[in-house]
Write a structure and sequence with these properties.
Strand content: under 5%
Shape: extended
Largest sheet: none
Number of helices: 6
Structural class: mainly alpha
Oligomer: single chain
Length: 144
Amino acid sequence: MATAAAGEAMTTLSTVYKLNGFELAVNELPDYLPLVCEFASLIEEKAARALLADAVDTLAAMERCARQREADHAAIFAALIALSARKPDEEEIAAVLAGMASEPEDLDELDRDWEEEPVTFGPGAPACAGSQNQGPSAMPGQEP
């Protein structure tokens, strides 16, 4: 899913929650699957099935990935797909899978993928973008 489309979908989902009196905590993302399931459990069945239909292609892609890993939680995705108001579309599933990051082969590769650059502070540290690293500046009200 393109970034703009994903952002729009998140905004729409947040609006759906609010219109139904369901408030998110500040640190909750609207597409967090346990949250979606909780919300679906609180609304009418027809609306819940429609909500799942909006995500069914992504759920199907996630189910395939989980099954490939022989993960037990693949059954959860299968259950949500079965409850959806529509069947997954094979072309859409392929598009979702194509947009997913490739899975690391082993834990060392996973570590390399998530490794961060070391941060250097103090004199000689690289300057932040758009700033001049000229040492400490004067406090407000003091001469530099």
